[in-house]
Amino acid sequence: MKNSIMLNLSEQSSTSIYQYIFDFFCKLGFPEQQSHIATAAGLLLTAALLLYVLDYIMRRVFYTALNKIALRTSTKWDDYLLSNKVHVRLSRTILVLLARQFLPIIFMGFPVLTAALVKFLDLVVLLTIYHLVNSLLKTCRDIFRTSNGFKDKPIDSYLQVVQIFLIFVIGTLAVSLLTGNSPWSFLVSLGAASAILMLVFKDTILGFVASIQVSANDSVRVGDWIEMPKYGVDGDVLQINLNNVKIQNWDKTIVTIPTYTLLSDSFKNYRGMQETGGRRIKRALNIKMSSVRYLSEEEITALKNIRILSPYIDQREREIAAYNKTWNTDNSSPVNGRRMTNIGLFRAYVLAYAKNNPNIHQELTLLVRQLAPTEYGIPLELYMFTKGTQWVYFEDTMADIFDHLLAAIKHFHLQIFELPAADDLRLLVSKEERAEYSL
Q: Against a cut of 0.90, is the pTM above it?
């Protein structure tokens, strides 16, 4: 009863306003038809002006107050609300709802215009609600990104799924308003075209499933270093979206790959290395086989001057002496019994050097092993981990180690294998020519 009374009062007031403006134009000498048009234009201009004034007041008063409040608080969520313009979307939604409520009453004297205006305002209401909800979703995304539990999760993928669903709902309601049919009839017609929709949104569906599986299995996170040579990927994951994954390579190029390739193709994730805190060194020195031999007593005595190797030599001498004494070894031939070799002492030196290196991780695997001989010599491989995982630190540490070993190997009477260079060949030819000339 109360609502009907209020509606009747609104109708009467709008009719009196319309009649007053219409009479005003008639007194000015306008014909009746032109007076109706002028009255409609005047009402429309007045309504637009009122809405503009309300919007101006909201921007000047409401927005400024919210900005000051957000700056004074220590929380971040209100800053995200402002950065995503939630307050702007909310005020615009309120204005559109007010226009939807009062404009049809103002233009009650124009039934055709009122019907078109109502349909237009309904569409604008749907659009403003979509923008408001979308801003709220982006705010939730930003809040989750700063949370320790969600900052490395593919939040963008979930946001895009909700956005697609929201667009679908808004689109369905908009079609229903324009056609005047029930939304269910539109959904039924979409069911018949589901095969076409599956084909159109194939990548989106695959990406959505891949995002869920990647998140559930924790196989890739934002910030991980991954490597996929097939797609030229070797760098950090910047973003995991619904349809693609964005990676920044070490050369600062950006590579974008479909999300479902993280399931269909293999890739290498270096997260385990980064979490462990050590980066592996796995490189070998190829030693020339002809330079491997037993060491004499004088050479062993000279090597005792190496501080980190001296304890090992003393222990080794005692073990060898005890063994040879037990088995009555004939020392006339160095092959009899046990002897120290230059490659064995060099291997012990490399291990001792690594154990005394402050840049080598002592709690992870640390060994110096001899691999099977090849046509390039005997590979003496260093297998160890640096204390840091940064690329520059890793390369500097490894270079320092091999710089030292390449310079120290000559003191063990060993040689590094290398293929003949052009100078070697020219020297060989020159020696042959001199030998022929002397003959």
A: no
Residue 239 phi, psi (nearest 5): -160, 140
Q: CA-CA distance, 404 to 108, in Å (whole number)? A: 94
Same domain, residue pair 144 and 159: no
d(CA 125, CA 94): 9
| 144 shares a domain with 24 | yes
**Domain harbouring 220, CATH code:** 2.30.30.60
| Domain containing residue 402 | 277-422
Q: Give the residue among 208, 223, 222, 224 at the shortest CA–CA distance from 263.
A: 208
- Asked which of 248, 269, 290 is the last residue of a domain, the reply is 269
CB 230 within 8 A of CB 257: no
- The number of folded domains in the chain is 3
SS3 31: coil
> Same domain, yes or no, for 209 and 287?
no
Nearest to 187 by CA among 200, 169, 205, 199: 169
Q: What one-character DSSP code corresponds to residue 341?
A: B
Say how far apart CA 66 and CA 179 lie, in whole Å: 40
Which one of 151, 185, 216 terminates a domain? 151
The DSSP 8-state label assigned to residue 277 in this structure reads T
Q: Where are the beta strands (DSSP E) in 120-265?
A: 225-228, 233-240, 244-249, 254-258
Q: Is 345:412 a contact under the CB 8 Å cutoff? A: yes
Give the residues across from 283 on adjacent strands: 382
> For every one of its 439 residues, what pLDDT tens digit does the chain have, with 9 covering 90 and above?
434 433 343 444 445 555 556 566 666 656 655 665 666 666 667 777 777 777 777 777 777 777 777 777 777 777 777 777 877 788 788 888 887 777 666 666 666 667 777 888 888 888 888 888 888 888 888 887 777 666 666 677 677 778 777 887 888 788 777 777 777 766 666 655 566 666 667 777 777 778 777 776 778 988 899 999 999 999 999 988 878 899 999 999 999 999 889 888 889 999 989 888 899 999 999 999 999 999 999 999 999 999 999 999 999 999 999 999 999 988 888 899 999 999 999 999 999 999 999 999 999 999 999 999 999 999 999 999 999 999 999 999 999 999 999 999 999 999 999 888 777 777 777 766 666 656 5
What number of CA atoms fall less than 13 Å from residue 334's CA on the CB side?
Answer: 8
CB-count exposure of residue 131 (10 Å: 0-12, 13-18, 19+): middle
Token pair in block for residue 238: 């910047």
* Kind plus residue range of the DSSP H or E element containing 368: strand 367-370
Q: How is residue 14 written in tokens?
A: 């709008």
Give the E-state strand segments of 192-275 in sequence order.
Answer: 225-228, 233-240, 244-249, 254-258, 268-269
